[in-house]
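Morning F.,

Quick status update on the modeling queue. The single chain you submitted on Monday has been processed. Sequence for confirmation:
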Amino acid sequence: MYNLLIAEDEKYLREKVTKNVDWPGYGYKVFVASDGEEALEIIRAESIHILVTDIRMPGMDGLELAETAKALNGGLKVIVISGHAEFELAQASIRLGVEDYLLKPFRTKRLLEVVEKTREKLEVELERKKQVERQEELAKHTLETRFSNVFGWIANPNSFLSQTQVPIRHRLGDILKSGTLGELREEISILHETMDESRDDPDRLFIILNDIVMSTLTSMKTLGFEVERVISLMSKQLPTSKQTQFSDLKKWIEDFLLDINKLASEGQDGSIEQLIGSMKAYVEEHYRSGVTLNTMAARLNMSPSQLSKLFLEYAGEHFSDYVTGLKEQKAKELLKGTDKRVYEIADYLGFSDAYYFSSWFKRTVGCTPTEYREELSSKRLS
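Structure tokens below.
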């Protein structure tokens, strides 16, 4: 059950959003506040997961509430409600860490969609946190019960094939997928320094090594390589001397990652083209629900910056421009080929309301949806 707090000073709207949705049926316990101060009292007393707040409220406004609330609870997700007059302010709130915004008037169905989308983000973050905790527990357990030394652990491929957690060494994964040899050598130096710091802590050393290998496996799988092929490179030239164990291990890490980089470089172009193709296919299927670079990066276990760089390089345009272009194409098709009203098309394409859709369409195409239809009609008649 997720705790949802709704802060709204207008009584009719407060009752509308709380009573028109079966929140408990969707897995939410709802708390209600009529102003910012009351909302803060609830946040201090309860473990709130998602805050929905009006921007304009007497006393403490919604943005001040959001900033203070996130200082109290760093994991809190915030959605703001605003009127058309505060549209630019609502957009600016995104830069303050607000997840999403709704423009008045809106249907409660739309609020539910935004809350559900925000919960999905929250669930991803919570699951990743749990995975990191499980990873550390697994590392310690495996070190104590299955292997007498790190080399015995590396020599057993099942150590990695049976793991399901998401690796946390994202920079290494990004470099293997799209970085340069120079960046990789720099990262290897950083890894060596990290290993040196943990030389006398075998538990910590195991965690570092485990994550290096799992980051590598995950990255290569993303590029389309078979896990067994990576495992064979990993097993290559394993150190055997117990007297020079630590130095050999550092050398093995370097050789392993350089071999992986060579393998990735040989087959990378085709694999990345497949990745870009799968991204476009996903956007085609889910563009109505609001696909962003961040959600796509989370799905692919890549950083948004690296994914943006790859998409621009191989697709020839920014990811956001591609999504906008697709929505523009679909909007034109619906305006041209159907008799749906503008508000129906807006709802179908995932816009919060017809006003926002019309503003977006005019900004993108150069005319309003109605003007676009009228222009099509005049061309047919001429």
